[in-house]
């Protein structure tokens, strides 16, 4: 079977890709995610779009190895979702429903885990079997790949990197209800929060302005040699580097991939994280490599396809 | 093939077990570990012992599925050890050498990972696929089982639970060279250290005596209602509970198994760990169960046999 589909379901759009099973993306496209009526149209819409792509390309059922799907929620190893924050779904047997809609083999996984798998297959982790991917966006997500497979866990909640506690003294509450989560210091909003706290202490020695703080503004100022920005990025790097050292002691990865919007700051970001990682890494993990993600928004469809290819 | 061997190589003795592949221990025995001359006799001694057991039981080569071996060192997925602390071995191709000595299929793994596998197969984690085992002995070791397999990692150093950092303010150095490792607070020696520190502040309000402090003395005093002992166990439980909450966010286990000499304190220990775990666990992990290990010193030979049975 020469082809498979990778599907990445998000709250606004569903991204889809047609892949050759040896590892090339033939074509990608997207459709709107219709979340109304508890998201009942989402899977039928995807099935219809894949079917019309097969007709357009004159590809028959027997040429398709299957459909991999990434979903923004915990997904267990039977392809079942208990709840979603932004698709409208409650309990949903994604694997079974999509199988019935298409007659094809289906596998489903959490979107962050699937994106990590994509980076391992075709991106920054190419050729590796043991990898951590951290996605620094509005929140902090991630996926941990062990011996070629993402850690799914008992409740489909493996790889919740953003919610490991890195500061037991924190008094502000994280979106998850706890305090001191990695997400509170290293997401785009977390970096902005660190910057705001710094400027509350002293805002006279920096080009940063309280009115338009952002993670990008902080890294831009750092590149211009701003000392306050450097303090903020040191703090960010300390939290992320130390958290990665603890994760490495548990999963012993070959490479740690940093992705998401914040990672657009570039290699300078890696330098600060790696420095603090080395301070605390177990001796067997000191040489773990840090790299930036390469696939951007395509990581999800690539990893979803890889679920099928295995 | 009805039988397999489980071998657990330690610094003083090698424990061995003959198992039926459906999961019963037929017989166990042990021999001395001869570590002199860079441990060159260890594997030949084991091979000879297994051979004489086969002769005694009139079991032929074709009835043996293979030999699983647990080793007190990182072991990569090719069954290669780079170095050992207490066997005398440097670089050693354990899987290849043992295969040549016996003509049987061989698999090798780290002893703590293998013990975790044993508890999952026949002990406290029976029927589970996702499990963390923490062994609280002289040091702190452990194994993390994901989807039925131990996390080995890129350097065979997966599951180094004792060396995640839980206190960035610590000024005493851990055996690994870092500071603030879980092992410094939750091993038998770590608990003794916490007790010593407590008595240095105030030793007038407790039955504990500086001269004969031990983890056992602390838990015995706790059971008699000693307040200072309770403070010490609270501190122990805080470090271990919070560390397990962070590990659960990454690996999402069904159950966390606590073993090693310290766990002989019994269920009271679990109560203190579980309380602090719940304070910090990600919502998907709040219901994770805590249980005591069941197999004691047999966990190693059981898990080694399970490496073969798969």
- The CATH fourth-level homologous superfamily of the largest domain in chain A: ATPase, nucleotide binding domain
Helix content of chain A: 25-40%
The tally of structural domains of chain A comes to 2
Q: Quaternary arrangement of the chains shown?
A: homodimer
Secondary-structure arrangement, i.e. CATH architecture of the largest domain in chain A: 2-Layer Sandwich
* Backbone shape of chain A: globular
- Describe the strand arrangement of the main beta sheet of chain A, using strand numbers: 3-2-1-4-7
EC number (chains A, B): 2.7.1.2
InterPro entries (chains A, B): ATPase_NBD, ROK, ROK_cs, ROK_glcA
Protein name (chains A, B): Glucokinase
GO molecular function (chains A, B): ATP binding; glucokinase activity
Description:
Two copies of one chain form a homodimer. Chain A folds into two domains: about 5-120 and about 300-310, 2-Layer Sandwich (Nucleotidyltransferase, domain 5); about 125-295, Nucleotidyltransferase, domain 5 (2-Layer Sandwich), CATH 3.30.420. The first copy, chain A, has ten helices and twelve strands. In chain A, strand 9 (about 140-145) and strand 10 form a beta hairpin. The first copy, chain A, is about 40% helix and about 20% strand. A five-stranded mixed sheet of chain A has the order 3-2-1-4-7. Chain A has helices spanning about 35-40, 40-55, 95-100, 110-120, 185, 190-200, 215-225, 225-250, 265-280, 300-310; strands at about 5-10, 15-20, 25-30, 65-70, 80, 90-95, 105-110, 130-135, 140-145, 150, 255-260, 290. With about 300 residues, the first copy, chain A, is an alpha/beta fold. The model of chain A has no long low-confidence stretch (mean pLDDT about 95). The two termini of chain A are about 15 Å apart.
